[in-house]
Inverse folding.
């Protein structure tokens, strides 16, 4: 029976970011608040989700070596995709 501890890390991080992205704007919304607060919170949550997923993917490469040997495709693909998206954001922001 394989253990899926690296997947659990990704899942916990996703649930944490989902909670921040949904519940904080929901509780902070009132008629006197800025309408941009919700949008900005969701955008920063997406940034945190991407950066955190990349960091967890790199961490998994070194810490869960036996798991990575079995499920190489999942971690490498997820780390590469999030790394490329982060690189795209860095290049796009440097052009502004």
């Amino acid at each position: 029976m394989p253990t899926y501890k690296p997947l659990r890390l990704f899942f916990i991080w996703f649930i944490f970011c989902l909670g921040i992205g949904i519940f904080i704007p929901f509780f902070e919304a009132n008629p006197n608040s800025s309408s941009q607060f919700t949008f900005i919170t969701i955008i920063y949550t997406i940034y945190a989700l991407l950066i955190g997923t990349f960091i967890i993917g790199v961490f998994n490469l070194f810490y869960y070596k036996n798991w990575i040997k079995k499920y190489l495709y999942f971690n490498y693909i997820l780390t590469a995709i999030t790394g490329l998206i982060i690189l795209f954001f860095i290049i796009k922001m440097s052009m502004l």
The chain has one domain: 5-26+34-94.
